[in-house]
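Usage

Read records sequentially. Each one opens with the input sequence:
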Amino acid sequence: MPDLPKKKVGIVACSGEEMAAGTVTRLAALKVLEQLRSAETVTICLPLFLAGGEGDRAFARFYPTIAIDGCDKRCAARATEKYSGKPAASVVVTELVGAEVNLGTPRRLNETGRQAVDTVAEAVAPLVDNLLGVKWSRRSGAAVEETSQPEEAVEAKCSCGSGIPVLMLSVADRRETLIAVPAIFEHFYQQGKRPDTNGVAAELLQTTRLYNSIADEVAPAYEAALLREYSHYCQKQEA
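and closes with the structure output:
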């Protein structure tokens, strides 16, 4: 299989700035990213995600995501589902601490609001473990499989630099974004598979479908487009 980046969990936090619960989501996400599960998570910027950031959208399609929303409008979860895929898990501040609780103001949380940050972050951390299949030791503050102490986090990592390979492909007069395809091309080339190899077109399509949703009715068009792009890739490698 292609050599793809290590699996992590993307954290998508509500970007609402008019309510204190929105501030709680962002601070809770930051605590997970920098303190509780720094090595296992990356942040997905919701405004960039909505604006069409390919790195963030590709990450959310390839890796599991957790949406942290401030209220039952679930803007972060809805945006993730619309542009990439349904979040693997979802947390709503008002469902955890109550809709009528006074959390302070968006600019300054009160003591209840600060406690809500801890509550939400501690609810998200085990969700990360479940998605990655990791058992976490509260006593040692590390994954039980690891013997070394985790490095102290100094900043949250962004999915923009996650290294997920993306290819813009023309399919039936449309531009489609496919993840993992550059790595698939490299993998096939290293195995000695060339465009004229028997069955390589079907195998390219089959492997690409492991990482991308391709409907049966458009599969032939994707197969032809993938073979065309792979031919160009091989020509560049051999030039």
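Summary fields computed downstream for this record:
- The chain has nine helices and eight strands.
- Strands lie at 9-13, 41-44, 65-69, 89-92, 136-137, 142-143, 166-171, 174-179.
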